[in-house]
Amino acid sequence: GKNKKGKESDDVKPDEPEEPVAKGLTDHEKILVGRKKLPVFAYRDEFLEAVAEHQVLIMVGETGSGKTTQTPQYLHEAGYSKLGKIACTQPRRVAAMSVAARVAQEMNVKLGNEVGYSIRFEDCTSPKTIVQYMTDGMLLRSFLTEPDLKSYSCLIIDEAHERTLHTDILFGLVKDIVRFRKDLKLIISSATLDAEKFSSYLDDAPIFMIPGRMFPVDILYCKQPEADYVDAAVVTTLQIHISQDIDSGDILIFLTGQEEIEQCAETLTMRTKGLGARIPELIICPVYANLPADQQARIFMKTPPNSRKVVIATNIAETSLTIDGVCYVIDSGFAKQKSYNPKTSMESLVVTPISQAAANQRSGRAGRTAPGKCFRLFTAWSFKNELEANTIPEIQRTNMGNVVLQLKALGINDLLSFDFMDPPPAECLMRAFENLYALGALNDRGELTKLGRKMAEFPLEPMLSKSVIIAEKYGCVKEVLSMVSMLSIGASVFYRPKDKAVHADTARLNFARGGGGDQISLLRCYTEWEDSGFQTQWCFENYVQSKSMKKARDVREQIAGLCERVELEETSCGVSDFEKVLKAFTAGFFFNVSKLARSGDYTTVKARHTVYIHPSSCMAKDEIPADFLVYFELAFTTKEYMRQVAPIKGEWLTELAPHFYNEADIEEAKKKKLPKARPNK
Ligand code: ADP
Ligand code: MG
After folding, report:
1. Best residue for ligand 1 mutational test, from 32, 89, 92, 102 (most atoms within 8 Å of Cβ)
2. Which residues fall inside 5 Å of ion ligand 2, going by CB?
3. Which residue minimizes the CA distance to atom 21 of ligand 1?
4. Which of 133, 290, 548, 573 lies at 20 to 30 Å from 378 by C-alpha?
5. pLDDT tens digits for range 476-530
6. How far apart are CA 315 and CA 278, in angstroms?
7. To test ligand 1's pocket by mutation, which of 65, 69, 93 has the most ligand atoms within 8 angstroms of CB?
8. Does the predicted interface ipTM exceed a cut of 0.95?
């Protein structure tokens, strides 16, 4: 039977009264005292015994019990770091960075030395690193350079319950690797009770339970559905803040993304100003993926007396980050989810209702330190009848192109018999093969081509890496690199303060002037900044976010380094010759092309889906619409929007993607340009 270590939760002793903390401790000593108070500490020895005894272990414990920050340190203290690095994967970049920073502090070392992190485009490790936090995607990439992962002694696949695409693929790879690397320790760590499933997948590996301390949480539902959950969250926050005792605890709000979070923060700031001085201070802390590091640190700061903190987060705060002192949770009931339709090959980010399991995780955040309350901004009926029981694993609702390419590069050819915990729909796999074939990465026997092998070297989506590589043919590698880097940073580059909106818009128009759409605007912006000698002053003058630009430069440097590795010459054609640049872009993004329909709307060429130019695009207000547009991505909010669009020529499609488009696809667009009223025959 199963070897259940640890104790069942009813064995937990009631919380002992807080010991008075000795005065005069240094900050680091205080941290050490704190470490010993975490639930996992009581099971330190048992945990290490279990690891010594078993090669594979499933670890389960409530969020905040210390799994992520403590167990890698325990393994290090027990000597495993002498045998190799201890890796701990995280589904999210912010979590990897933030946890690494915390552990470096606990171990009293400089971040990047003994404790470091690796996320895409940012490697904060050194030869000294022994505890390495990394995104699951980065560990996946490590297999390409080190197929047996021999520089590692322990792998912790953390937040396994999140079931991200990369984590799911890792399961298959690590399951294989532990068979021939008997010295490698593998720990699968999860915050929820789906451990049985992990255990049976991993040949009945034992489950190690860390009982958590949980206080009851009152769940309050809305009587009627809320039309605007951001506004409802603001109102609920203010009600709590004004009516509840100031020492009763902090507030955590779950929204879906940066825009909503910023909007919520802004509204809260405005409305609290109007409350007058008698109401205690409300400290507003937003958290989302692209948040600068200094602001990340604010989330964890202890709330000063006579004030309250409100953290406004995406589902990153569901299990990846623990914020102490939260007693009120406000849950919008939504999260941004990737959704993929293999029939149309369309992938987009969609605001989707969360699952019941996720809603319960969220409400649990209110009961870590004291009894709490969770305000669900949806109805009890909706919870019962409209929410799915569990979140569908990402692998079943995503474009598999990138992962298939990487697995092919690892020599895993027969993907249909890969040991998936939950296999992706066959249709998604087939579509990935077809798309990689259309991109030229696979040949007609499904084998990796020379181009495909080069593409796999880049930590980019196949469409982007194809654009970079093909740019050599058009003599514009330098330009495509700059454009791709600007597209990859995923943050807004243009700065538009409300009081200077007119100036900002003029500055932005300057980049768009001359044509070429958003892609070429971004290229002009980067090139001009480069010509200025990367000046921050230039950024101010042109209403451009200097932080985003620096990030783009870092990304660019890394991709350029990889170009050298695959012997791609950094040719240049100059910005004015941007047709070449757009051609290279289209050679990768030909799946994302839409054409002007008679109605004046755009429809995607193959699937004939109606799509709209995103209002933030520099082409949104063009008087003469282009016949064909290539777009970077789709985002579904109120409508299906194309983000980052550029005008192209229809003929390019048959030239650049002959496996995918035929003359008829372009012909039809020409026909549609004929006058609307045609005489009846
Ligand atoms: P788990 O992985 O089990 O959810 P963690 O190891 O992430 O738990 O967290 C344990 C404790 O460490 C939490 O109570 C949290 O307060 C603290 N902690 C984690 N990250 C930070 C950070 N960046 N700054 C301050 N405290 C942190
Ligand atoms: Mg954790």
Report:
1. 102
2. 67-68
3. 102
4. 290
5. 999 999 999 999 887 789 988 888 999 999 999 999 999 999 999 999 999 999 9
6. 33
7. 69
8. yes
